[in-house]
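Long-time lurker, first post. I've been practising inverse folding by hand and with some scripts of my own, and I keep getting stuck on stretches where the structure tokens seem ambiguous. Below is the full token string for one chain I'm working on. Before anyone asks, I'm not after the true native sequence, just a reasonable design that respects the backbone. If someone could post their per-position residues I'd love to compare against what I wrote down in my notebook.
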């Protein structure tokens, strides 16, 4: 394999890790830049990574929880709090966006529900070269690599919605999605979870149902399947270079020729210094919010990129609407089991969206009074997802990121809110939900299309008017998947890598 084509991948979530690993394993020289740190987990320690950052636990929770807070109204768009923080929040008009920052991206904080799109004929009608049939093998490849598990009775998962609400007169378990998979290392013996070492020497512990330490605050022992474990660890052995704490600020195209190189400018958060590297090809997968921020800044502020008339249009939230169900039933501990308990809806209401959820993770580590921690254990985070209208716009105003999104144009939000109210009324247990929806699945803004008239990238993920620049994350998705999007992002990235290898591999 020729090593003459060098590639920089920006971001290590489901878009970045998949494409970086696939290309490195095909013997391309790949450097991955990730703004967040390697997390201090059992798998990462076993990989021999020397510099690691703790997940938010105990008295480190306040200093490790938030990386930055931003909003349309904030000077500079955001205030940075801790370079080691797990989450970034952005308060936009109509929606609040939460994204994470780690090597492995959102896989540290996702629900680990590994499913294909719930929206019918998801990939049809966006580009003649892309279809459900074309994309299906990429989902298969990702699910196999993730080792996703179909939950069975033998797994003896406690506190599932199917068990809790099967005899409820007011609620019923919702039917699971087609081919439901979970990205957890489920124990063969639930009473005795053990350490597993995979073929690459990476160590993980099976999920401990009683400990419930594998939720949206990360998975310290590796019970949740994360991308640093299954994609980056083997790719490192095949020559992948990962630079953590490297926050990309701009991309500059060096010339107008079709084969012009790119300069990638970033801040080395280890040293605080500004650095830059060049590459023949750049794959942008920094997460929708930051991918759009980088592209807009590069084009509109420093003039490093041109064109992209559809950039920032058709931004969406995947219909995310979160709440906290204060169930507060005596003797109930919803932290036992998995952070993903399955779906529920009002009994007999087949039109209601499925509401999923799970207990708060690692509650005993919160620096809170014991009585409050015990109360939190009796509640659960819940959420509805669905296909939204993707009517939002992302732009820069006076150099600041500005996002506007109209929830009234997407009926899914009212349906979820109404379902929350019905569930609360039927059970007498309060559900607290913000007026402005919070999304952890922002999509679009640099989406797939047939030309610059209706999209930003084509069927190979390449930006139409900036050859050699690609978008591999959810910013490229043409519509909302309607359910957890991680496998759809990963499948898109796997497709992008496959197309790249086919085009650039010597004949």
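-- Answer (accepted) --
I ran through it position by position. Result:
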């Amino acid at each position: 394999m020729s090593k003459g084509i060098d590639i920089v991948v920006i971001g290590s979530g489901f878009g970045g890790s998949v494409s970086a690993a696939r290309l490195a394993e095909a013997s391309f020289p790949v450097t991955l830049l990730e703004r967040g740190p390697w997390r201090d987990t059992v798998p990462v320690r076993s990989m021999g990574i020397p510099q690691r950052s703790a997940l938010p636990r105990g008295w480190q929770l306040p200093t490790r929880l938030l990386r930055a807070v931003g909003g349309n109204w904030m000077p500079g768009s955001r205030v940075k709090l801790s370079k080691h923080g797990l989450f970034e929040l952005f308060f936009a008009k109509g929606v609040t966006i939460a994204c994470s920052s780690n090597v492995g991206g959102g896989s540290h904080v996702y629900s680990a529900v590994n499913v294909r799109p719930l929206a019918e004929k998801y990939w049809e009608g966006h580009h003649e070269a892309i279809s459900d049939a074309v994309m299906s093998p990429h989902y298969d490849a990702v699910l196999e690599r993730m080792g996703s598990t179909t939950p069975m009775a033998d797994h003896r998962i406690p506190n599932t919605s199917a068990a809790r609400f099967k005899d409820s007169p007011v609620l019923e378990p919702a039917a699971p999605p087609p081919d439901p998979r979970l990205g957890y290392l489920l124990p063969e013996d639930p009473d005795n979870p053990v350490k597993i070492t995979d073929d690459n020497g990476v160590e993980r512990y099976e999920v401990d149902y009683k400990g419930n330490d594998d939720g949206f605050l990360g998975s310290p022992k590796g019970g949740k399947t994360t991308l640093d474990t299954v994609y980056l660890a083997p790719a490192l052995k095949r020559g992948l270079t990962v630079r953590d704490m490297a926050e990309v600020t701009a991309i500059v195209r060096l010339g107008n020729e079709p084969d012009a190189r790119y300069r990638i400018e970033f801040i080395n958060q280890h040293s605080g210094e500004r650095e830059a590297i060049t590459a023949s090809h750049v794959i942008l997968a920094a997460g929708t919010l930051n991918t759009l921020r980088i592209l807009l800044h590069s084009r509109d502020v420093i003039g490093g990129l041109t064109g992209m008339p559809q950039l920032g249009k058709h931004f969406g939230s995947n219909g995310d609407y979160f709440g906290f169900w204060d169930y507060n039933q005596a003797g109930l501990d919803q932290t036992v089991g998995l952070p993903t308990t399955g779906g529920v809806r009002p009994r007999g209401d087949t039109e209601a969206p499925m509401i999923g959820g799970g207990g708060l993770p690692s509650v005993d580590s919160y620096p809170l009074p014991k009585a409050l921690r015990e109360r939190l254990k009796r509640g659960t985070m819940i959420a509805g997802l669905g296909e939204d209208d993707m009517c939002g716009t992302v732009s820069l105003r006076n150099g600041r990121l500005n996002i506007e999104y109209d929830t009234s144009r997407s009926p899914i939000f009212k349906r979820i809110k109404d379902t929350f109210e019905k569930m609360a009324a039927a059970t007498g247990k309060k559900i607290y939900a913000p007026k402005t929806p919070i999304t952890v699945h922002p999509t679009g803004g640099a989406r797939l299309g047939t030309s610059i008239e209706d999209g930003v990238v084509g069927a190979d993920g390449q930006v139409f008017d900036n050859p050699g620049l690609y978008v591999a994350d959810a910013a490229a998705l043409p519509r909302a998947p309607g359910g957890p999007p991680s496998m759809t992002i990963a499948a898109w990235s796997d497709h992008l890598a496959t197309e790249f290898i086919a085009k650039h591999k010597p004949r």
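A couple of notes from the structure itself: The chain has a mean pLDDT of 95. The chain has one domain: 7-504. Happy to go over any region you disagree with.
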